[in-house]
Amino acid sequence: MEVDAVFIQATKHCPKLAVVEADDIPLIDLSVLKSHNSSEPDATAIRLLIYEIGEACKNWGFFQVINHGVPFKRRKNLEIVARKFFAMSKEEKKKVSRDDVIPFLGYYDTEHTKNVRDWKEVFDLTVENPTLFPVSHEPDDKELREYINQWPKNPPELREECEHYAEEVQKLAYKLLELISMSLGLPANHLNGFYNDHTSFIRLNHYPPCPVPHLALGVGGHKDAGALTILAQDDVGGFEVKRKTDGEWIRVKPTHDAYIINVGDIIQVWSNDRYESVEHRATLNSKKDRISIPFFFNPAHYTIVEPLEELIDDQNLAKYKPYNWGKFFATRKRCNFQKLEVENIQISHFRRRQWKAVKAVCSSSLVQTTHKHNQQLLNLALELSSPDAQAFDFSFNTGGEKSTVKPQAPIKLEAFILFLLDHRERAKHDYEQLKKTVDELQAFEQNVKLVKELKL
Ligand SMILES: O=C(O)CCC(=O)C(=O)O
Ligand SMILES: [Fe+2]
Questions:
Q1: What does the record list as coiled-coil region(s) (predicted)?
Q2: Residue range 159-182: average pLDDT?
Q3: Which end of the chain lies in a sparser environment, N or C, as judged by fewer CB atoms within 10 Å?
Q4: Does one domain contain both 262 and 396?
């Protein structure tokens, strides 16, 4: 069977044939939250649970939960009805197509992730019906619209099953939000206020069998833009996360009645990078089709997302500028529909200037040309930080025309060292890579001194 080239991934994104399954992915038991025999829950056990969740968010950016309180029947029923829906003819499904008037909700099969088409079809619905959202991504356009779910005639039980499911998973979402809040040292309900008019939605994902599972992806590598995702996957398997320690794609083996929880971009920003949104993707299967059902737990459209005041001080400056969630989401939606030449909007575009300055150092050819080792190192650093670097390429090289900043070289170098140290903390793998390239860190540090002595 011929496969349309729009589905084919660049070689570096193609899934490897040998699947890696890690056995240390955090599996967290929430049974302690249920108060048995109406007695108070065990305070020590809760403290331990909060600690476990904090560690999982920090080290992995995701975890699985069991004994979460969502009745298995609700999930199973929804999976069955989702299969029924996707088994209908295209013509039938397209009756509830997402279109220009209802751009977020209903059926569609043309989503692109990172500009390559996903091998999937989906049905989207909001949890609150209607849900208020900005009409346009344009910052000055203040028009809002009430988005209403589109329900197909068939299967008739789809609506009811979706609504039952949403109700139950929502309870879990609030529990997790509270646990995460406490793991950041904040009161349990600290984040709840953002959810008064929340914009959470549920997606039914269907990945048909694919004749070229080594060349295409169900969903290409991406980070979820919202706050928290609660994912149910069936027993076929295919969900993979990029492990923070070494950048390896790890397959998360389906665990009976477990949910996969991942921290999204908003929690990364709220936590000022203490917790990082993890990159993940869905791989395909040549024989079986697969269903997955993410619940995206997102705040009100008017939420201004920024690092939480309680988590910043002189030592931990806010790393992001505030942004409006509704506008961010609208911009994302606009790009996902079509193949564009530009990169989609990312939270890295809102990183604050002190971090930009660091990236500017990396792109300064003045520094790059001073020493071969440094050049390699800086190129690598530039690569590691490429999403940011793209967004603001200062190119202020030795009196070049575009020069807008005249930075002081010693300050720049210090900033660069800070950048490296930050990377060392955040991604040991990247640091190992850097280290390898310059032979060893010591050599690099000597080079830095050298550049300083040259007073560049
Ligand atoms: O299908 C999966 O396992 C992942 C889906 C996903 O990441 C998404 O829809 O955002
Ligand atoms: Fe996702």
A1: 424-454
A2: 97
A3: N
A4: no
Give the domain-ending residue among 349, 377, 400: 349
Ligand 1, atom 8, residue with closest C-alpha: 294
Q: How far is CA 222 from CA 107, 115, 225, 312, 405, in A?
A: 21, 11, 9, 27, 33
Question: In the predicted model, what is the mean pLDDT of residues 284-288?
Answer: 95
Residues 360 and 329 in one domain: no
Q: Which atom, in ligand 1's list, is nearest to the CA of 203?
A: 9
Pocket-testing residue among 79, 109, 219, 265, ligand 1, by greatest number of atoms within 8 A of Cβ: 219
pLDDT of amino acid 19: 85
Q: Tens digits of per-residue pLDDT, 226-251?
A: 999 999 999 999 999 999 888 899 99
CA distances from 386 to 382, 392, 412 (A): 6, 10, 18
Single residue among 315, 349, 383 that ends a domain in this structure: 349
Specify the 3-state DSSP secondary structure of 75: helix
* Predicted TM-score (pTM) above 0.80: no
Q: Which ligand is in closest contact with the Cα of 120?
A: 1
Range of the domain at 177: 5-349
Q: Per the structure block, which two tokens stand in for 406?
A: 């005249």
